[in-house]
């Protein structure tokens, strides 16, 4: 008889942590649906696009691998003649629509592009797909996307900084820096605009 009461007491005591965990989890989830709900994110920015110069003038002659004896040491030089010349400048604008797919406790927002476009000069580039992150602690915003214009396909990289963290909903100013922000091997981008979470 004493053993059965002892087993009942142990069983009840073992269920208390499980019940407490269930109540805590339920109360936490009831307070955080807004932070976990899917939101919309948009970026609108304007600025300049600088054409990346042609590298045809660079002497690309080098010995064939079969002519080299190992180990090979290739010197690294900072020769101004090896740099591409500065290119022509164009106006540029980007409009990005995205869906937030993850927001976590470390304040990182992950988003997937849903509809976007990039215009440089008179050329429109459709953004086919892409993803990005916004770290609300470092205020760094990064986006990688595949873009198309006619038969041409390339990679758009935007790397920028916001002036402050986002509230939900909210809008902040953002700058995309050159040369980290670019369209494949075509343009360096320098853009200013807004980042909106709704």
By DSSP (H or I, 4+ residues per run), the number of helices equals 2
N-to-C terminal Cα separation, in Å?
A: 63 Å
What is the strand tally? 9
Shape: globular
Biggest sheet: strands, sense, closure? 9 strands, antiparallel
Strand content is over 45%
Give a structural overview.
The protein has helices spanning 2-31, 33-36, and strands spanning 40-52, 86-103, 108-120, 123-135, 140-149, 152-162, 170-176, 182-183, 187-197. The protein is of the alpha+beta class and 198 residues long. It folds into 2 domains: 1-31; 34-53 and 82-197. Strands 1, 2, 3, 4, 5, 6, 7, 8 and 9 form a 9-stranded antiparallel beta sheet that branches. The radius of gyration is 27 Å and the shape is globular. Residues 10-36 and 55-85 have low confidence and may be disordered.
Topology at a glance:
Elements: H1 2-31, H2 33-36, E1 40-52, E2 86-103, E3 108-120, E4 123-135, E5 140-149, E6 152-162, E7 170-176, E8 182-183, E9 187-197
Quick structural summary:
The protein has helices spanning 2-31, 33-36; strands at residues 40-52, 86-103, 108-120, 123-135, 140-149, 152-162, 170-176, 182-183, 187-197. By secondary structure, the chain is an alpha+beta fold.
